[in-house]
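Hi team, as promised in this morning's meeting, here are the two structures we talked about. I've kept the exact order from the run log so nobody has to guess. The first one is mostly here for context; it's the second one we should focus on when we meet again. Sequence first, then the predicted structure tokens.
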Amino acid sequence: MTPRGAALLHDPRLNKTTAFTEAEREALGLLGLLPEGVDDLETQVKRAMLQLDAKTTDLERYVYLSALQDTDETLFYRVLMADPARFLPLVYTPTVGEACLRFGHIMRRPRGLYVSLRRKGRVREILRNWPERDVRFVVVTSGERILGLGDLGANGMGIPIGKLSLYTAAGGIPPRLTLPVLIDAGTNNETLLADPLYLGLRQPRAADEQLDELVEEFVGAVQAEFPRCCVQFEDWAGSDAVRLLERYRDRVCCFNDDIQGTAAVALAGVLGALRITGGRLADQRFVFLGAGSAATGIADLLVRAMKLEGVSEADARRAFFLLDRKGLLVAGRDDLKPFQRPFVQARPPISDLLTAIEAARPTALIGVSTVGGAFDEPVVRAMARINERPIVFPYSNPTSHSECTAEQAYAWSDGRAVFASGSPFPPVHYRDRIFVPGQGNNVYIFPAIGMAVYATEATRVPDEAFIAAARGVAEQVTSADLEVGLIYPPQSAILETELRAAERAAEAIFALGLARVPRPTDLRSYIAEKAYRPEYAALV
């Protein structure tokens, strides 16, 4: 039953604010609760844009958009989708990083579900408190590794909220099907524990065994309450991320965006870059600064894609040189984690990035270290000396943690770098050219995977779907994009990009027999018809 009066105005999914028609105002008890003027949706968008323009900081714009999402969901998504290149960085990276740092200070209204150790044994009861019964996507974080900012505990809830906004705005997933979740296992962030406005459990992080027991209960409860649901693990500590993905990827429909999504967006970037540099993926050599779960996830997916071009796995793995804080991953080191061992090199130890570049002579340099400025001038100039068109991807977020800026990469390579970053950078004027830096943002991948899973009702999310989505993204980069150095499609048309990539990923899911629905004759139209469009529904 449709709520009436003030209750209707407080329901973000049904509220139209000033766009209720005269008939709806009469029938639904709204007379006197609204001014007499009746707006259409486009007029409301203009008003929202005016109010956003009056804000002086991106964090203020984030807070405004969060409030809009809490009051009028349709208008919120209409604003985001009206100018995605402008608004996606406000609801997610880089602004969401600052929002998470101050989450307990800026929160107006709770959103999503909080599953804490204190409620162990009652997780299914908590899921039953969610008002929607047909949840298809859960994004869940432990808050322990938020972007490049570290352990933010319960403040990390800003991440699943933001991610799911992008599922809808960029991927067309109906918002009612999504649920953000924070697994609260404590925090080791002493600043937060001492903050009187911190909202999470005030205790040190639980041991792995306790965390795993809670996650096991949570995954089982999701399967019981929402049997067609896909779980996306987001911003977990590296060892937890790898362990949980390996535990659940063949049991339930799930994926880890930091591992698989980051890998696929990197693959899309490499494929786009090769349209500028020439050559085959199979012939590339890669140096990574960073050897955590994101780095090994990228490397694993690139290895798999290289194997599809006929390279043996052993030869493919020899093309990857990963460095952590102690240097190159080499045989003989006794401090490596199991997920790092497939990428050890049979070489003498190398302690620094510049020496590794000189030894490996890579065609591509990828940064997932969260060490701002790590790609300094000698490093970039070495890449430019070795390659006519060096591929330089500082993927770390937020902007302050990027290994180099776009301006630095172009200047230090004499304008020859093929550049993409994790955080956005403005166009760069170098000599007589203007370069448009690409943003290797996971937003190109995970909403497409979401739409593919939604359309196929997939039982699992295979690596083949991520490779297919990456190829689908790279295929949409135009010659005009490449001319200005842009190797990802412009975010201004992100929904069309995602739906095409979703089609590719869905093809892979159908081919592997992982779909719960028959394959439609016209897959592209089938997916397009499922995509959410922000329009007010008639209520009378």
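And here is the second protein, the one for discussion:
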Amino acid sequence: MKLEKGIALFLSAAMFLTGCGFSSKRALVDPKDVTPMESYEFEKLTFDGLEETDFHTVLEAEDGSHGSGVNIKSDKKDSSGGKYADISDNNGFKLTVDIPSDQFYKITVRHCAGSHKENEILFNGAKVMTVYSEEGDWVETEADGVFLKKGKNTITLGSGWSWFAIDKIEIENGESIDDSLYTGMSETLSNKYANLKTQNIYQYLRAIYGKRTLAGQCTDYGNNTETDALYKGLGKYPAVRTFDFIFDSPSYPYKNDRPAKDYDLAIEWSKMGGLVVYDWHWHAPCKEPDFYSEKTSFKLSKAVTKQDVAHMKVKELRDLYQSGKISEETYKTVSDIDVIAKYLQKLEDNYVTVLFRPLHEASGGWFWWGASGPDAYKWLWRTMYQRLTDYHKLDNLIWVWNAQDEDWYPGDEYCDIAAIDIYGAAHDYGVSPSTFADMSTWTDKEKMITMSECATMPDPDLIVRDNAYWLWFAVWNWDYIVKNGTTELSDAYTELDMMKKVYDSEVIITLDELPEF
């Protein structure tokens, strides 16, 4: 028994050292061992309720039945019809249009603003697009593949910043998302050394893409509140669960109050057969420890360096820092990544594949990793990728990029899946097909696209109708899904009947339907 135990300990230590990057070589997985995507068969579901009617109309913004928050002006000589609607309160804007048939349309909005503004366009209370206005002349934003129903349609504005102008809204025949958007996906992961389970999961994702959508749920840190509530209320678990390294940053000041423990739950979730997504609300490596840019003086721009810090040993980094050749920001940024690498290694040692989604929502600027602009962000993303993949030799990661803007894309060799976060109004179950189609152009090569955060579950009927098969959706946690932290489902955002419809739908894959990887 002692001999057997000693051999087991030796093998365990050898595996640990190999996984932690101490080995000089990494073995490539034999392609013959990877389950090919063709082994998973899913029938494409289609929508057959379309009508075909030629239609084209231009709605002048000044012609609506507007409230006090809309002023009709004529001081812009190039405005259509000589007038436009100047909007200070979104609740005051309203247009109506008679639609001749149930079909897909293209909607074009001509707008402008005095500075950056973001505003939602709604048809019958459901968001169909977001217009982004910058300081300057009129610009046009298009949304194709918008399904409108026959009869009177009311156009209003949803949440946004107001203080912008609309000149006109054009509606004409459009086209739904073409199936070609689901072909040509990258056949392999960006990391050629990815382990067998990770490659099997990726091939499964490729197989379902364009045919099914995975149910996902973001969860409170360190507990099972949301997933327990879903199982209690619906009898099923989501296929995808999102965890977070929020309390694992070395600078996090309250470790005794909220000890890091998500990775234990992630291991258990993986053993149950679920797919693991990991975010990182990264407390700034130095200065004030917060992830919101307005709450820390940490500047990512001060960390950017031409030194190849991603591949340096810890001692080399420390020597450069102590000699003043790299900044404190650089040194502690890489040091923080090294700490997270230990948790990711623990997950790999426990056979957990991680759909890794760091540095999310960067283009918004509210997180410090986005506050210094796209160039600094791309430096950080590439540095993190190389540090974890090349230096630490982590082979259990599928990289999910979620900066929310194509100008922030770090490159195909550093990304496997593209993601966006969409927060619509409560009880709006639309699937944002125009956003889906637009995102397909953001990457150089075709990448699968996912809705990594959302307020409501998407209606599976609309996924089929609009041909917008997000790889997965993940409803945000807390009151977006449960009542006051209990394990009781809340209908504040998604009504209970819709939850049941989603989790029982043939379109949606839940945990019990996942294969063994």
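Starting points for discussion:
The domain at 181-513 is CATH 3.20.20.80 (TIM Barrel).
The chain has two domains: 56-173, 181-513.
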